[in-house]
Amino acid sequence: xxxxxxxxxxxxxxxxxxxxxxxxxxxxxxxxxxxxxxxxxxxxxxxxxxxxxxxxxxxxxxxxxxxxxxxxxxxxxxxxxxxxxxxxxxxxxxxxxxxxxxxxxxxxxxxxxxxxxxxxxxxxxxxxxxxxxxxxxxxxxxxxxxxxxxxxxxxxxxxxxxxxxxxxxxxxxxxxxxxxxxxxxxxxxxxxxxxxxxxxxxxxxxxxxxxxxxxxxxxxxxxxxxxxxxxxxxxxxxxxx
Length: 241
Known about the structure:
Radius of gyration: 17 Å
Helix content: 10-25%
Number of strands: 16
Shape: globular
Structural class: mainly beta
Low-confidence stretches: 1-26
Distance between the termini: 9 Å
Order of helices and strands: HEEEEEEEHEHEEEEEEEE
Mean pLDDT: 89
Strand content: 35-45%
Number of helices: 3
Oligomer: single chain
Largest sheet: 9 strands, antiparallel
């Protein structure tokens, strides 16, 4: 049975945009749900394990996780999750930055990446964190830009996923109904809810994309290093029935 979203609807009245800031503590974006209610837990350095990044790819400072973007790789939670909701805030440091969060990554995928010891990304459902400037970058290179929607895309990576509309031309991605993210140098707020094979994403307070049919619907959470420096903060998770 899927949980009611009554507690979420009140957040829409607060507006769909939050102010951005480079101050990691004093101006932290407040979740539009009470992520300090019972059951919510903060993910800190001790909750993550290395996978296939370099030693200096990830670093923690004053509660903020800094990523150099190199090599293309991930860091993974030590624990696995089935049904959960998560809050995460992120900020690209440069234009055209690329990153994301993976949900329900299998232990086998992580073991394979560790064994290979080279750049690469796991299976799972990717929650895209792509700066608007990436579109301009692809256009300048003469490449197609209709297959991605910058921030807010949801899609399966070597895992079954049925995207909610609107979708990419090939039907593999759930495109965001609105582009609500701030640009590089400003913080953004993601709320992700994953229940019984369904994943939904709220960007800066408003639901924008989703999909279902994910199997198996359990696994690790991963943060992605994909070519550009990015910062993460306020990583919080609550397990759901």
